């Protein structure tokens, strides 16, 4: 009696579909074996495509046949055994050499005769043709999707695959969380580990509920999909999906990754709220804080130089109490304040400048659009050159990727201009609102916020002879130079001018350096 192996295979590796299909094959084949008195000594089941050689279960069955354990195979159809020329040829060779005496199929007739082997080879050839043709049809569909700007693959974090429209859409549950994570990393204040922890706190986790792996985080941060493009086989394409961030933000993320995402060191060590804020004005070393208790039991904090210099003798012997330093910080914030009344006056003038700027911005927009049209024309010529064979595929990819980056940069500039107009107007509004924020801060008691406010607007804070000095950044040094009547601040508040070390003695030139509040052009606003 001929011994048979039963072989059932399913191409899909999706567990639910795979089990159902194999169970159906097993039921049909067992019933067929009983009807035809086929003696099955072992059953083999496998969930793997047969279009490529190398199936482990199939190879194990073939090895057992070669050893003579069985000389027959029962399967649903020849395409279950092979969809490639190597495995199909091995089956036919075993028939030629007598190692396989019989093949049984419920849906296909076979006898080990020249006609039977010819028909079997035709069946294997048809199975291979089906696989090859299916692959070509799938690739053609993928190429068309790419031409339409649709990424052919699993949607990245923050998006989902829309099955009905076959597009990729923002995921309402994760889109804003992923966007927040990207924008936070772009600040340069996060490492890969800290941004992973932040994403975990936002609910962005792996499938098992654990924090994302660092390699996943790196891929997430480096994916051009988030600014509207995507890579397919090393080639950059423009997508039709909704971008999550701008190209400018993406570039900042890449810069932060190159810098290893080093965070800013937070040197505000509680409970000393001004520790690490300033350095000694004489030797340049850090100012430390100490807590003392008076005989009455009352505690107080004072600041002094650490005197750690080994090459310079520091002559600073005076201590600065925390109360005194707090008063100086409040005065500093007051000197930068702008009243509500003057905030409205300045904003009204900025609105006039914005109208003027809008009328004069058309040439700039036209230039950007011309640049985009030029890049598109180069892309078309490059594609034509690749199609007629005058450009090699690798050179085509490199040149196209460079043009796509240029195109994205131009689109980013145009988008930024559409959103904000000329940057100086936005900076001017920020200058006005910052001054108004200073007035609110100075009226309160939140000294930590005052400290951070001065740290944001100034640099190089020093304490010398118990006096605080600070170098103001442009254009906020001009805000300090404004006459008190042009800020709505009482003259008595603007004092202690020795506290400030301005970077430039000419506020007119400083203010106009970056195109912000040029006094020569807009002096009438300060004389209103």
Note down, in words, how this protein is organized.
The protein has 18 helices and 14 strands. It is an alpha/beta fold and 528 residues long. The strands form five sheets. A four-stranded parallel β-sheet has the order 2-1-3-4, with helices on both faces. A hairpin with a 2-residue loop joins β7 and β8.
What's the short version?
With 528 residues, this protein is of the alpha/beta class. Helices cover 50% and strands 13% of the residues. It folds into four domains: 3-140, Rossmann fold; 159-258, Hect, E3 ligase catalytic domain fold, CATH 3.90.1750.20; 279-341 and 427-526, no CATH class; 362-418.
Averaged pLDDT, please? 80
Q: Alpha-carbon distance between the termini?
A: 112 Å
**Biggest sheet strand line-up:** 2-1-3-4
Instruction: Count the DSSP helices.
Output: 18
In terms of DSSP E residues, the strand content is 5-15%
Largest sheet: 4 strands, parallel
């Amino acid at each position: 009696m001929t011994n048979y192996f039963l072989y059932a295979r399913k191409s899909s590796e999706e567990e639910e579909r795979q089990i159902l299909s194999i169970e159906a094959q097993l039921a049909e084949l067992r019933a067929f074996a009983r009807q035809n008195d086929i003696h099955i000594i072992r059953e083999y089941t496998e969930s793997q495509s047969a279009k490529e050689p190398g199936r482990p279960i199939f190879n194990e069955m073939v090895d057992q046949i070669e050893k003579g354990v069985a000389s027959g195979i029962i399967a649903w159809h020849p395409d279950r055994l092979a969809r490639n020329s190597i495995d199909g040829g091995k089956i036919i060779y075993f028939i030629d050499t007598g190692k396989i005496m019989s093949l049984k199929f419920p849906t296909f007739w076979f006898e080990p005769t020249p006609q039977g082997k010819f028909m079997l080879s035709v069946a294997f050839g048809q199975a291979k043709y089906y696989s090859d043709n299916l692959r070509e049809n799938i690739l053609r569909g993928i190429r068309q999707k790419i031409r339409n700007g649709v990424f052919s693959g699993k949607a990245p974090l923050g998006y989902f695959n829309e099955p009905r429209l076959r597009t990729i859409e923002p995921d309402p549950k994760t889109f804003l969380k992923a966007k927040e994570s990207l924008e936070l990393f772009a600040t340069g204040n996060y490492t890969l580990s800290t941004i992973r922890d932040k994403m975990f706190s936002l609910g962005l986790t792996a499938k098992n509920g654990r924090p994302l792996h660092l390699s996943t985080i790196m891929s997430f941060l480096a994916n051009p999909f988030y600014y509207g493009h995507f890579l397919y086989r090393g080639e950059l394409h423009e997508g039709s999906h909704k971008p999550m961030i701008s190209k400018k933000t993406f570039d900042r993320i890449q810069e932060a990754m190159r810098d290893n995402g080093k965070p800013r060191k937070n040197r505000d060590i509680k409970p000393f709220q001004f520790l690490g804020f300033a350095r000694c004005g004489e030797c340049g070393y850090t100012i430390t804080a100490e807590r003392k208790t008076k005989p009455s039991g009352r505690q107080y904090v004072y600041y002094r130089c650490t005197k750690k210099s080994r090459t310079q003798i520091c002559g600073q012997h005076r201590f600065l109490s925390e109360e005194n330093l707090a008063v100086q910080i409040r005065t500093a914030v007051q000197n930068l304040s702008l009243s509500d009344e003057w905030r409205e006056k300045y904003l009204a003038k900025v609105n006039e400048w914005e109208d003027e700027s809008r009328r004069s911005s058309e040439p700039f927009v036209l230039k950007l659009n011309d640049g985009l049209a030029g890049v598109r024309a180069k892309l078309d010529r490059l594609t034509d050159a690749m199609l007629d064979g005058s450009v090699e595929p690798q050179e085509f990819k490199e040149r196209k990727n460079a043009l796509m980056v240029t195109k994205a940069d131009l689109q980013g500039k145009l988008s930024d201009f559409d959103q904000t107009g000329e940057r100086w107007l936005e900076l001017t509004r920020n200058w006005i609102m910052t001054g108004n924020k200073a007035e609110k801060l100075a009226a309160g008691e939140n000294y930590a916020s005052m400290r951070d406010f001065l740290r944001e607007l100034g640099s190089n804070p020093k304490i010398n002879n118990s006096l605080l000095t600070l170098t103001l950044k442009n254009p906020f040094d001009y805000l300090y130079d404004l006459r008190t009547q042009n800020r709505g601040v009482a003259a008595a508040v603007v004092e202690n001018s020795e506290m400030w070390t301005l970077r430039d003695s000419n506020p007119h030139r400083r203010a106009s350096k970056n195109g912000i509040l040029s006094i020569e052009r807009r002096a009438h606003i300060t004389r209103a």
